[in-house]
Amino acid sequence: MTLVADKSILLVEDEALLAMFEKNQLEQGGYLVTHVTNGENAIQLVIREEKPFDLILMDIDLGRGLDGTQTATEILNHREIPVVFLSSHTERDIVKKTETITSYGYVVKNSGFTVLDASIKMAFKLFEANELTKSKKEHLETVLHSIGDGVIATDSDGKIIRMNPIAEKLTGWTHDDAVGLEINRVFRIVNVKTRALVENPVDKVLRTNSIVGLANHTVLLSKDGSEYQISDSGSPIKDLNGDTRGVVLVFRDITAEYNVQSHIAKQANMLNNVLDAVIGTDFNHRINYWNKAAEKIYLWKAEEVMGKSVLDVLHTDYLSLTADHVIEKVNLEGSFIGEVVQFAKDGNIRNIEINQVLLNDESDLPIGYIAVGRDISERLNAMNHIRESEAKLTQIIESAMDAIISIDQSKKIILFNGAAEKMFGYQASEIIGQPLDGLVPLGFRNQHESHIDSFSKTGVSRRAMGALGEIRGLRSNGEEFPIEASISQISVKGEKLFTVILRDVSVRNLSESKIQKLLHEKENILKEIHHRVKNNMSSIFTLLTLQARAQSESNVQTILYEAAGRIKSMIVLYDKLYHSETDNSVSLQDYFPAIFTEIVNIFPKVVEVKMDILEEPIELNAKLLSSLGIILNELITNSMKHAFGEITNAEIGLRIFREGKKIFLEYSDNGVGIPESISFDHSPGFGLQLIGMLVDQIEGKISIVRNPMSKFLLELSV
């Protein structure tokens, strides 16, 4: 049973306040919790420092740097540890993205501690179960790898789920490449004599639900071209209910044994194993020789045709000649070569390339005929497929929405599709053979021609046109229009052909203009939003200030002034965003003097303000400035509450300077000083704790200088 007190959790959360709340809940639940604000720090602790965490609670959105899914992927590449994702997102695509990384849990933020605690405990149980399953699996893998025969396991659909190393070697497929494929793609077996495909044992087992053996003379065709004579069997894999859930195929290589037997047969059948059909007849056309290839092509066995007339067995169409004319030609000239159509035993047509010769005896007297036939049906089918492919390509070109134009080396048009006809207003019949210049405005022709010549010399197969400027086309009615184009080149029999694919972008250019207008409207709307937010927050500030002034108790008054100061820092930020030229950033020089003065003026005590801010303009994003504004408010409030007492010449200062790629904010006062017992780690008040968390959130560093004057030094990378 999992004990909560034994478990340590790494919380990865960039929002300081939320992290503080979650950490407190988890610790009250009995967990040991370590918090970091970004993915880089999490990787540092888990991988580089090898901290022994039992589980990671990972926020998906982590601000700058790695997000939660990237951080989890990096950690899981180095260490097995359960990861539970935390997010405010409930979109299905975001949840599915985390499931591809780990499956230990996904918790929506603010679901409550009960849900979070249950998810964590379930993740621990799943992790323990997975570790146990992994151990058992490793044991079975060791047994499987030690077997000397090839072993392949499939599911009930005949798809591969496991292969051992011997099976990998014999099939030529790696385990990873083969898993999920149909067994017939990987375990390809044929009859060694007929080369016909043999029914796969897996298919037979699934059909009969029984153990089957491989047929004799079975050859396994390896992926790398090797062949292995194999034997053995396939057996069903059954579950506890006796239902077949798959098949295990066990086979071994008996090639060496088979080669000894087949060598003798090859010696005897060498002359009978040519690929072409060889038919011998006497002078009266009676068949006296019929080889194996003839059996395969015409489907007649030798014993079925011996002694019969070849004219009766094979019905031959000589296409341009009659059978009598062919025989006469052979008798007079000694041979006939040509293409014929012959019918096999099953009535199907065979396209045959035939060489028919007159066979003479030693006395040069004719004793018969030899006909050597080669089945060219597949070759003719391939040629027909090529013609069909050419027809399909033509249809594709004609149906393309973009204009497609091809030109030869002399820049004359040789292809002009339907879209080109619509674009330019010419029919293909009137433009084919014409120079390409007719489609280019006069002012662009020299540039266009030199571009094609230059492209021809590069040897590059494809390139986008228009990189050096606008490209325009010329319609048949004289109208010029903007186009987007790419050009490609091929070489056919030493001659270069160029193809240009064109798209009329007139409508797109108009759309882009409308988009720019909408973007401008969006900027105005965003500024209005900033203005309205500022006004609403000003109302809140006014209410807090009035309420503070109405209080008789100084503690309550101070709390209200602190809250008003935090609101004031945001008011100033939104005011600057409203007047900013950019969408979401404000100049450091604009923001800090304004917020410094505004916050000081909230408090009734008179304090002299001194500021020294670098002149170099620096733009910072609104999120960073918001955190810096709250930090500055807390520092000013702290001074007003604790630093001055009865001091009449109270003074606070802000100095901002830069060193390299770092910005430093130095805040000081001339008050009573900061006790040695007070630090960011040990503070009785909320203010310094909040400053510490916000500094971590923006990835900065802050330190306290006590002598000779109290100072806070904040270091920030930009």
From TrEMBL:
PROSITE patterns named in the record: HIS_KIN, PAC, PAS, RESPONSE_REGULATORY
Gene3D superfamilies: 3.40.50.2300, Histidine kinase-like ATPase, C-terminal domain (3.30.565.10), PAS domain (3.30.450.20)
Protein name: Response regulator
Annotated Histidine kinase domain residues: 528-718
PAC domain sequence ranges: 214-266, 330-388
PANTHER family linked: SENSOR HISTIDINE KINASE, SENSOR HISTIDINE KINASE PDTAS
Record SUPFAM superfamilies: ATPase domain of HSP90 chaperone/DNA topoisomerase II/histidine kinase, CheY-like, PYP-like sensor domain (PAS domain)
PAS domain segment(s): 136-209, 263-317, 389-434
Swiss-Prot/TrEMBL keywords: ATP-binding, Kinase, Nucleotide-binding, Phosphoprotein, Transferase, Two-component regulatory system
Domain called Response regulatory: residue spans: 8-124
Modified-residue entries (4-aspartylphosphate), positions: D59
